[in-house]
Write a structure and sequence with these properties.
Elements: H1 3-23, H2 30-39, H3 42-54, H4 57-67, H5 71-93, H6 96-102, E1 119-120, E2 122-125, E3 131-134, E4 139-143, E5 147-152, E6 155-160, E7 171-176, E8 180-185, E9 191-194, E10 198-203, E11 211-222, E12 231-234, E13 239-242, E14 246-251, E15 257-264, E16 267-270, E17 277-279, E18 283-288, E19 293-298, H7 302-305, E20 311-318, H8 319-330, E21 333-336, E22 345-351, H9 356-364, E23 369-374, E24 377-382
Parallel strand pairs: 1-8, 6-8, 11-12, 21-24
Antiparallel strand pairs: 2-3, 2-7, 4-5, 5-6, 7-10, 8-9, 9-11, 10-11, 11-14, 12-13, 13-16, 14-15, 15-18, 16-17, 18-19, 20-22, 23-24
Helix pairs in contact: 1-2, 1-5
Domain FecR protein: 184-268
Transmembrane segments: 76-96
Pfam family, one: FecR_C
């Protein structure tokens, strides 16, 4: 069984046990029944909460790291700890009212503000300046050049009513705000999943001997192959050229690097100064904007593309990078009260539509860091 499956199943087991607390149902399996008995034992819950206060996961992790030399075994241990943490988090965070009954009267529980993302939303800016807000409702729009635009909860699609060649290239722009994501299907059939705080400028109808779009932010491209007409994604840092492939580009203006991750096919990156770089499947290019250095490495592409499958996954990412991602997705501001905390590294995998507190609570487990959410701002400080 995979560790993310253990993670998911632990959530199901705890949810069932808590559900019985609320409804009094008796049709639970042995695993859920054991959890229920522990939840009903006041001494057990109090003991675990006291141990949680004294526990240092960071020290435990460092001891484990010294003992385990092989990285694969280390990753297994980390995911096992993650799966166990999920059960604790769901017991403590999702059902405070039930636990309050079991705790002594002197206990004080502080409920923090939770924030959820919006989901499918975007703004279409047409060539004439008209702005159309897109969401889950169905809309049919007409565009010059025998093009029909259809928008609904699945995204925006450009359909050519008949094959035609445009005399003048007309560009539209799709803007996905913070807290949203959207799927765009271009006139050639290329599919573009756009992440939060991103924008793509593209022609209504492709013409000439190349297909060019301009990206700022993050997007996953599934390009329709046409060897005679290469597909080019232009960014402020450089251009990525493909024939037919699947790849992810992350090029936010406020980040130090452009990151391209190739799922399959072949892409070429060219910054206009240094020699171009060609990527093979499951390779990732990190282009450092400040010094123009290109780094190519082998990666598990799922960590960098899972956002389009409604998951947020991190593998040994710094807290600084993670919080920038959460800031865009949940539309919150981030304040580090201690800049040294930015370098803490975490790994994890959660449903993208869960509340922000679920992420933050997992980060707090075993690490000397605390989060406070107030008025859509996340304050990050050292723990007590």
């Amino acid at each position: 069984m995979k560790w993310d499956e253990i993670h998911d199943q632990s959530r199901v087991a705890v949810d069932k046990a808590i559900g019985r607390l609320l409804t009094g149902e008796n049709d639970l399996g042995k695993e859920e029944d054991d959890i229920l008995k522990k939840l009903q034992d006041a001494e057990y819950v109090c003991e675990k909460l006291e141990k949680r206060k004294c526990y240092s996961g960071r020290d435990a992790f460092l001891r484990l790291k010294r003992q385990v030399k092989r990285k694969k075994r280390l990753r297994v241990a980390m995911w096992l700890a993650s799966a166990a943490c999920v059960a604790i988090v769901y017991i403590i965070l999702l059902q405070w009212e039930q636990i309050e009954v079991l705790l002594p009267e002197t206990s004080t529980i502080v409920k923090q503000e939770n924030i959820f993302p919006v989901g499918m939303k975007a703004i279409l800016v047409k060539a004439d300046g008209e702005q159309v807000v897109l969401g889950k409702e169905h809309r049919d729009l007409e565009e010059a050049g025998n093009v029909l635009l259809a928008a609904d909860s699945t995204g925006l699609e450009y359909n050519l009513l008949k094959q035609t060649t445009a005399d003048t290239v007309v560009f539209n722009q799709l803007i996905v705000p913070r807290g949203g994501l959207y799927l765009l299907i271009l006139s050639d059939g290329t599919r573009v999943w756009m992440n939060s705080d991103s924008r793509l400028k593209y022609p209504v109808i492709f013409s000439g001997n190349k297909r060019e779009v301009i990206l700022s932010g993050e997007a996953f491209f599934d390009v329709v192959k046409d060897e005679s007409v290469p597909f080019i994604v232009k960014t402020e840092t450089g251009n990525i050229e493909v024939l037919g492939t699947e790849f992810n580009i992350k090029c936010y203006p406020d980040e130090a690097s452009l990151v391209t991750t190739l799922v399959n096919g072949k892409v070429r990156f060219d910054d206009g100064i240094n020699p171009s770089v060609i990527l093979k499947p499951e390779e990732q290019l990190i282009f450092e904007k400040e010094n123009g250095l290109s780094i190519v490495r082998k990666v598990n592409v799922n960590y960098y593309t899972s956002w389009k499958e409604n998951r947020l996954s991190f593998q040994e990412e710094t807290l600084d990078v993670i919080m920038k991602t959460l800031s865009r997705w949940y539309d919150v501001e981030i304040v580090f009260e201690d800049s040294a905390l930015k370098e803490l590294e975490f790994s994890g995998n959660l449903d993208k539509f869960t509340g922000i507190q679920d992420f933050l609570s997992l980060f707090e487990l075993g690490v000397n860091v605390k989060f406070e959410v107030k008025n859509r701002t996340v304050y990050i400080r050292k723990g007590n």
